[in-house]
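Hi there,

I know you've been waiting on this one. I reran it after we fixed the sequence typo, so this is the corrected version. Both the input and the resulting structure follow.
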Amino acid sequence: MRPVQECQLSGSGYRKNNEALDPARALWESEDLEEVKRLVTLYPLLAHKATAGKVTYGPQTGRPKHEIKNATDVHKHYSALMDYFTVNDEVRMDLQQLKIVRDWKMVRNRVRQNWLLLNSNDDETVRDVTAASFRLADEGDWKAALKTIDDGLFGVGPATASMILSLRYPTIAPYSEEAFRVAGIPSSKYTLKEYEIFHELMNNKADNIGCTPRDLEQAIYAAVYESY
């Protein structure tokens, strides 16, 4: 069993394994910048360790399943995307890059049965929608940027949209299950309104600590999986 599955009890999330979040909750309460820095440094290694193994998933029973034979390779591809989107001035994402974001979101958390729906987007639409979203975010309107992706791409909700934008913007934290629970949101329907609440919580806490919200999300994830 992959450590992610063991920690999250193979699909139950943290509802039945709530104590797994205790190290991350302690980090949240401590507001310890040095500990955040330590965990961010460890994040690539821990992400590799936590997601190691084969992942198989499909949208509905009876339809072909998609398999990622080496989940840790997805993190390498995602990290390369972050490097690219950070340094380039005008950016857009193609369908293959969007699949990398989806796959990394999947392997680092629980498998969800409808994630292959994203594949139905055509490449031109993905390019146009993400280009428009990045332009809005560059102008400072992250809410409109998030909504543009949520409205414009099939099978992509606020959580995946936040992970797309976090590739370029350190002030936008991915809407991960570990982070929203540690921030004080007990459960989520993954709506835009809920993400706005999460965004404010993460930015306020990051300001208190002296780090970025994106780094804080990585530190929370690393704190959970350091003991696994």
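Quick highlight: The longest helix spans residues 33-51.

Best,
R. S.
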